[in-house]
From TrEMBL:
InterPro entries for this protein: Peptidase_U32, RNA/ubiquinone_mod_enzymes
Keywords: Hydrolase, Protease
UniProt record similarity statement: Belongs to the peptidase U32 family.
A Pfam family hit: Peptidase_U32
Annotated coiled-coil segments of the chain: none
One GO BP annotation of this record: proteolysis
Protein name: Collagenase
Species name: Sulfurimonas autotrophica (strain ATCC BAA-671 / DSM 16294 / JCM 11897 / OK10)
GO molecular-function terms, A-Z: peptidase activity
Length: 431
């Protein structure tokens, strides 16, 4: 067993997601401000003030924030980029994540004391590239998603002072990360500038053309085969913590998904926190982690290429659907004060809702006029006897979109989620 504690790094697309990821077990989070961050949509969600608040929130808890400046800038943006780097440096994050040699050097020149992490967009796969970037000032390499564990071990053996970070969960790119031009060709949205339209997730009709005769045939597929021909499954390596951490090559395991939901931020952080802690306590239990992860919407899961070589894998694509529901549906989320919840699906009095809270949380067992809480099979549940809104109104049922906070029978940890099993007719792959 490797006794060096690995870091758990979670996505932070908003200030709320940042706080949730940290509360649910992440050691560090990554996110950014503006279009120089590789997720434009999530970059717009963060103001400099929010990002600064997030850094303080993390540092107050002994945790870290890495700022993403990993887009590929045009010449016309270089002066703006310099101002952005200096402004981000003033916020005192724990590292910058950058993707190109030029930006790496620029960050080092402008904020010389800032640790620099090289983005997965650089597609580092071998010792030579890792060494070059390390000599240029990179303190950590976020390796390509396509790298193998064996190659990671060789890089660590050659460069023991260089930190290595690997993705263990989330969406997979159809191409080497960010190197796909399909989105650019079809919609003008450039993947390695943060605005990929995810064209690989679309269904496509297939045709055969004969240029000599001008004949065009449409190829019909059997029902159920599907035409999502470029749709990669989602990465899920929670069941491989033994091999990954035994390698001694990995300093940080990373979860993808800055634009995904608050429930995703919480659930992935919790699942991988359990897996890491269980590894060091020598009590790994894959079923525990997969129970949480299977509750998320996904494109089907794969363990991809870290453990197995690409040519050994023939199940990394979801050909007949783009997204499927998980085993559970989020029915509500508790407010920051822990006193009320907002409905996210549909809630009736008497519904049994499983409680999803940070590890180590204490859930008080109560039975009063508002509702009951109880433990069953090692999990906590809540049932509401009445749906009493903050304004005093009693509802017969509440649905998503109802903005009235509903009173809880006891105080719960901030941002606790309630979930229910997905109905059989819900849990089908959308066509």
């Amino acid at each position: 067993m490797n006794n060096k504690k690995v870091e758990l790094l979670s996505p932070a697309g908003t200030l709320e997601k940042l706080k949730i990821a940290l509360d649910f077990g992440a050691d560090a989070v990554y996110g950014g401000v503006s279009h120089f961050s590789l997720r434009i949509r999530s970059g717009k969600e963060f103001s400099f003030e929010d990002f600064e608040e997030g850094i303080k929130y993390a540092h107050d808890r002994g945790k870290k924030v890495y700022a993403t400046i990993n887009g590929f800038p045009f010449n016309s943006q270089l002066n703006l980029l310099k101002k952005h780097i200096l402004k981000m440096g003033e916020l005192k994050p724990d590292a910058f994540i950058v993707a190109t040699p030029g930006v790496l050097k620029l960050c080092h020149d402008l904020v010389p004391d800032m640790p620099l992490h090289l983005s997965t967009q650089a597609n580092v796969m071998n010792v030579l590239d890792a060494q070059i970037y390390h000599e240029m000032g990179a303190t950590r390499i976020i390796t390509a998603r396509e790298i193998s564990l064996r190659d990671l071990k060789e890089i660590k053996a050659a460069l023991p002072d260089l930190e290595l970070e690997v993705f263990v969960h989330g969406s997979m790119c159809f191409a080497y990360s960010g190197r796909c031009l399909i989105s650019t060709l079809q919609s003008g949205r450039v993947p390695n500038r943060g605005s990929c339209a995810n064209d690989c997730r679309f269904p496509y009709e297939m045709y055969a053309a004969n240029p000599e005769t001008g004949t065009l045939f449409k190829l019909e597929e059997d029902a159920g085969v599907g035409t999502y021909i470029m749709n990669s499954k989602d990465l899920n390596l929670a069941s491989h913590m033994q091999e990954i951490l035994d390698s001694g090559a990995v300093d940080s395991i990373k979860i993808e998904g800055r634009t995904k939901t608050t429930y995703y931020a919480a659930t992935t952080a919790k699942a991988y926190r359990m897996a890491i802690d269980d590894y060091y306590e020598d009590k790994l239990d894959s079923e525990r982690y997969q129970y949480e992860l299977q509750s998320l919407q996904n494109r089907g899961y794969t363990d991809a290429y870290l453990i197995s070589r690409p040519f050994e894998k023939h199940d990394t694509q979801s050909l007949d659907f783009t997204m499927q529901l998980g085993t559970h549906q989020v029915s509500g989320v508790v407010n920051a004060e822990g006193t009320h919840f907002l409905c996210k699906y549909k809630t009736l009095p008497g519904d049994e809702m499983e409680v999803v809270s940070p590890l180590g949380s204490e859930i008080e067992i109560v039975d009063n006029e508002i509702g009951t809480t109880y433990e069953k099979d090692g999990k906590f549940f809540v049932k509401l006897k009445q749906l009493k809104a903050q304004n005093g109104k009693i509802w017969e049922e509440v649905h998503s979109g109802n903005i009235n906070p509903i009173e809880l029978p006891t105080k719960f940890p901030s941002y606790t989620f309630f979930r229910i099993p997905a109905n059989a007719d819900m849990n089908t792959a959308p066509k």
